[in-house]
Design goal:
elongated, mainly beta, 11 strands, about 60% strand, 4-stranded antiparallel beta sheet
Length: about 120
């Protein structure tokens, strides 16, 4: 059984920073592509950033230059450093990962962590 757990959300003022973490645990043979998504109130979940096993990255235009995605393969953990936060970044942030327990890859989601940007 595999579990993804996000942490690091909270309340921050505009212009501030937060660092989210996503830790994978359980029966893990390998982890492939990892991604962050977010969901604004009343809207569909949207892509934020992605990182490959080799640490190639890609970002949504709305966060490029402000957010940095990274991963620590030894710790089965992914991070999202969020800088210059804006009220529009307020959302529930979810991590997603392609994980193999030895018989092919499955897509897993975390439970989400709330980020609120407000003065």
């Amino acid at each position: 059984q595999v579990q993804l757990v996000e942490s690091g959300g909270g309340l921050v003022q505009p212009g501030g920073s937060l660092r989210l973490s996503c830790a994978a645990s359980g029966s893990i043979f390998s982890i492939g592509v990892m991604k962050w998504y977010r969901q604004h109130p009343g809207k569909q979940r949207e892509f934020v950033a992605t990182i490959t096993v080799g640490s190639s990255t890609n970002y949504a235009d709305s966060v490029r230059g402000r957010f940095v995605i990274s991963r620590d393969n030894a710790k089965n953990t992914m991070y999202l450093q969020m800088n210059s936060l804006k009220p529009d970044d307020t959302a529930v942030y979810y991590c997603n990962a392609e994980i193999s327990s030895g018989l092919g890859y499955r897509s897993y989601w975390g439970q989400g962590t709330q980020v609120t940007v407000s003065s």
